[in-house]
Amino acid sequence: MGLLDILQQAISGNNADAHIDQVTQHASTGEIGAGLAAAMRSNQTPPFGDMVGQLFGQSSPTQQAGVLNQILATLGPAAASALAGGVLGRVLQPGQTQVTPDQASQLSPAQVTAIAAHAEEQHAGVIDEVSQFYAQHSGLIKTLGGAALAIALAKMKENATRG
């Protein structure tokens, strides 16, 4: 069974959660990332910052550091450090451009929600970068919930039928 068949089953069966493992086994991280970005931009899902905060709360400290470092890389350390009232800047040492897992674990999901929301205001492309990061961590994708998964899968199907 190919990716398009799996996506069709997932969408028509109205049970995206049950098929996400199959999808992630057959789809590239680029395809998954594009689907996640569509879900994160959709007006049918919570705002981008809320979704990142939710994913952050379900992540390991290494994954938490990874997403924060993705935001830092997208915006640049100076801009990212000033986000959300300087919350990220308070965990970074002067001159430091990467967040460690220990530093990331000091932040709450609510703080990361604010960081991600401010990051989106500064650079809309951060959604694509963060989506690509989470596409590499398919176990976390399941925590997004049905609506976001359904939108992501529908976008993946739309992209697959075009190509």
Describe this structure in words.
The protein is mainly alpha-helical and 163 residues long. It has one domain. The protein is 75% helix and 0% strand. The protein contains 12 helices and no strands. Helix 4 runs antiparallel to helix 9.
> What is the helix tally?
12
Based on secondary structure, the structural category is mainly alpha
- The tally of structural domains comes to 1
Sheet-strand content, in percent, reads under 5%
- Calculate Rg over CA atoms: 16 Å
- Strand-and-helix sequence, N→C? HHHHHHHHHHHH
Largest sheet: none
Query: pLDDT average, as an integer?
Result: 82
**Record field, number of beta strands:** 0
Poorly predicted tracts of residues = none
- Report how far the terminal alpha carbons are from each other: 18 Å
Q: Give the oligomer, counting copies of the same chain as homo and different chains as hetero.
A: single chain
Question: Approximately how much helix is present in the residues?
Answer: over 70%
Coarse shape: elongated
Entry keywords:
163 residues
Write a concise synopsis of the structure shown.
The chain is mainly alpha-helical and 163 residues long. 75% of the residues lie in helices and 0% in strands. The longest helix is centred in the C-terminal third of the chain and has 17 residues.
Topology:
Blueprint lengths: L2 H10 L3 H11 L2 H13 L6 H11 L2 H15 L1 H5 L1 H9 L9 H4 L4 H14 L3 H10 L2 H4 L4 H17 L1
Helix pairs in contact: 1-2, 1-12, 2-12, 3-10, 3-12, 4-9, 5-10, 7-9
